Amino acid sequence: MKHPFLIDITNKENWLYPTNGYNPDGSVSEEQRTLTMPEGPHKMYCFTDSLMHPAQDQNPAFVGLHEHHMGYETFFVESGSMIFYINGKKTVVEKGNIIHIQPYEAHGMVFKDYTIYRGTFHDWNCTDDAVATALLEKNYPNAKKDPEFFSLLISNIDMYMREPADFPEVPATEVPSVRNPDKPIAEFKLDGVTMKMITGRWENGGTKEFWRAEMKKGFTAEWQDYPTVQDLFYVQSGEIEFKVYDEVFTAGPDCLVKIPKYAPHSLVVKSDAVMYDIGGLTQWYALLGDRESILKLNPERFKKPETINALKAKYGCLIKTCGMK
Q1: Contacts of 140 by beta carbon, 8 Å cutoff, 6+ apart
Q2: Is residue 233 helix, strand or coil?
Q3: What is the C-alpha separation between 212 and 277, in angstroms, rounded?
Q4: CATH assignment of 6-179, among 2.60.120.10, 1.10.10.10, 1.10.260.40, 3.40.50.10170
Q5: What are the extents of the domains in the chain?
Q6: Is residue 42 within 8 Å of 295, Cβ to Cβ?
């Protein structure tokens, strides 16, 4: 039976609408599965897991350069490597990097190795046809190999093909869409946790911001009694004990934790851990920036509990307490 809050990405029981992508000769190019479906007007909380197969041909003509006119994509490169084409440049992206793609950024990927490639999206219709295509593949397994169907499919998911392009190769540091967690946009060190901003709210149409939490063993966090938004966390390393309602469970690498709206919850870090906030609704950059300013410019005001409580309320932070246990 599926766990109500814990999603093991590697467990096939948790895969929604598994599907394959194909090369022109019919061989498999991608094995994809959806773990969580988009929700709400901004189609938030969607998360997918893919195993990308090595490209048969690394010629630019086979890159599949394309763009989207809406939506935002953020990908974790969890193994392997790829040649990434975007905005007139190409670069090699390796394990540990994160890719962030915005509307109208022409891009394409050529995978050099078998690569675990995990994505989260918002404000995009990428999964609108998931149920229909799953039914089609169940009844007609070869449908996605049909060029006519592929043309129909991409026209329905906001995908616009571009001409092949032979972009110059540059270091990944010269491609803004490639993010290195060791060099975040912003970084704040708190008691037991380092918060790193990977993408800013301005890079997500104002909908969300994307943060990495590097937590020490013994770090704890407790949310308000009835949080007014749901949470979706991606645990990349370490072990974290969660309590949701009265259910206690441990999440480790390759796990998502999906916590419903209004559900009381808390966490205790059992070993040094890295976790990403996929929902990204809290305005952490504003909150932590203002907190730091007050600490430096008005330390007496900073000492008053109501100061931080006011910042939390202003910027949508629903965490009641946090720090080392």
Answers
A1: none
A2: strand
A3: 7
A4: 2.60.120.10
A5: 6-179, 186-324
A6: no
| pLDDT tens string 236-267 | 999 999 999 999 999 999 999 999 999 999 99
Helix (H, G, I), strand (E, B) or coil at 298: coil
**β pairing state of 219-223 and 160-161:** unpaired
Residue 167 CA, chain-centre distance (Å), reads 27
Would you state the pLDDT for residue 180?
Answer: 98
The verdict on pTM exceeding 0.70 is yes
| 103 CA to centre of own chain | 16
Q: Copy the structure tokens of residue 246.
A: 């009265």
pLDDT value for 155: 80
Q: Which of 85, 34, 75 is nearest to 55 (CA)?
A: 85
What string of DSSP letters covers 247-272?
A: EEEEE-TTEEEEE-TT--EEEEEEEE
136 CB neighbour count, 10 Å cutoff: 16
The sign one gets for the Cα dihedral 143, 85, 127, 212 is positive
Per-residue buried b or exposed e for 73-106, using 16+ beta carbons within 10 Å of the residue's own CB = bbbbbbebbbbbbbeebbbebbeebbbbbbeeeb
Q: Report residues of the chain scoring pLDDT below 50.
A: none
Dump pLDDT digits (tens) for 56-100: 877 777 788 999 999 999 999 999 999 999 999 999 999 999 999
The set of residues, in sequence order, having a beta carbon less than 8 Å from that of 39 and lying 6+ positions away, is 45
**Which residue in the block uniquely carries the two structure tokens 């814990």?**
6
Q: For the domain 186-324, what is the CATH superfamily, name and number?
A: Jelly Rolls (2.60.120.10)
127: left (phi over 0), alpha (psi -120 to 50) or beta: alpha
Model pLDDT, residue 241: 99
If DSSP codes are grouped into helix, strand and coil, which group holds residue 62? helix
pLDDT at res. 134: 84
Distance CA(184)–CA(271), nearest Å, equals: 23
* Whole-angstrom distance, CA of residue 22 vs CA of residue 112: 16
